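Minimal example, chain plus zinc ion.
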Amino acid sequence: MRTRVAAALMTAPNQTLVLRDLFLDSPLRTEVLVRTDYVALCRSDALYVTGSLQIPAPAVLGHEVSGVVERVGSAVRRLSPGDRVVATVSPACGQCAFCLRGRPTQCANLDLSRDRRRPKLVSNLGEPVGTLAGIGAFASAFLVDESALATVPDDVPMDVACLLGCCISAGAGSVLHGTTISPADTVVVIGCGGVGAAAIQAARLKGARRIVAVDLEAEKLDLARRFGATDVVRASTDPFATERALGLLEPSGYSHAIEAVGRPQTAELAFRVLGPCGTATILGLMPDGEQLVIPAAALVYGDRRLQGAYLGANRFLSDVDLYCSQYRLGRLDLRAMVTTVLPFSRINEAFEAMEEPRSVRVLVDVSGAGR
Ligand SMILES: [Zn+2]
Ligand SMILES: [Zn+2]
């Protein structure tokens, strides 16, 4: 039995999304059908829409999502109908060598959790429709393996909970798991969208003595102060000018740099502003083929490190619990990260709203769609 869902369909790159009824399969053994409440627009969704990242069309994008479990497959043990959940693009098996070493975002069995014998989603003509990361949350319901879902307590509202699935997991995760930031440290965060804002908040949680936010937009820097930035630097399109401004604030260099933009220039900047023994952590996704150029002498003589952290090297299931408790204590400000909320029928405008200078996270309210 298939469920009719209201969906925003990507028919080809560089086209506006089309609102269409599609048909979602019933949950197989370990799958869960979730009614969508809110979905945030992530930079990667926009990169797929414009064709900078590729996905076979037609497809339903959307992955930073909250919702309520409606139906579960016969072998689902951890979740039940009525559970409030958020999703991750990197479900983990919990049993492979990477999962056992505490690196679930590198799970070797990711494909197994998405493997199924018939299409998840089809059009009214029965043609298969793809889903981004096996989720496809720009729809009134979606179907995922239970390992892709974490539960959220009743006191965390759904319109902020969705952020936990991607930008908080990545930005805060990179600070909590990918670095060893202590109160003695100085941190620079390059890019103050959702991921950068989350990294700033996590650096504050860890007590870093100086947190410098860097962004092209003054509005984002104002918000960055609210999230815990002690200093802000308005970036110039000339990365060397930005480097000089950062050097004036901290002449001996920074102990940590977090890059949340996804450009070679900003990733190289993150490395160049490090002091001796500093670590640059690159979070921004870059298309295949991009290269970084870093000064080799500074790397070796200064004991510096350059590392990637895909999705912040997060540990989704335990991290969501941690973030919910920090939200409850008032130490993680999810509300201020939501700068626009639009109804599902206006999802194309939501992509335009992402480009506004003040935009940190744009949400689409799917709670009334398709019912
Ligand atoms: Zn994302
Ligand atoms: Zn695994």
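The chain is about 25% helix and 25% strand. Residues 316-328 form the longest helix (13 residues).
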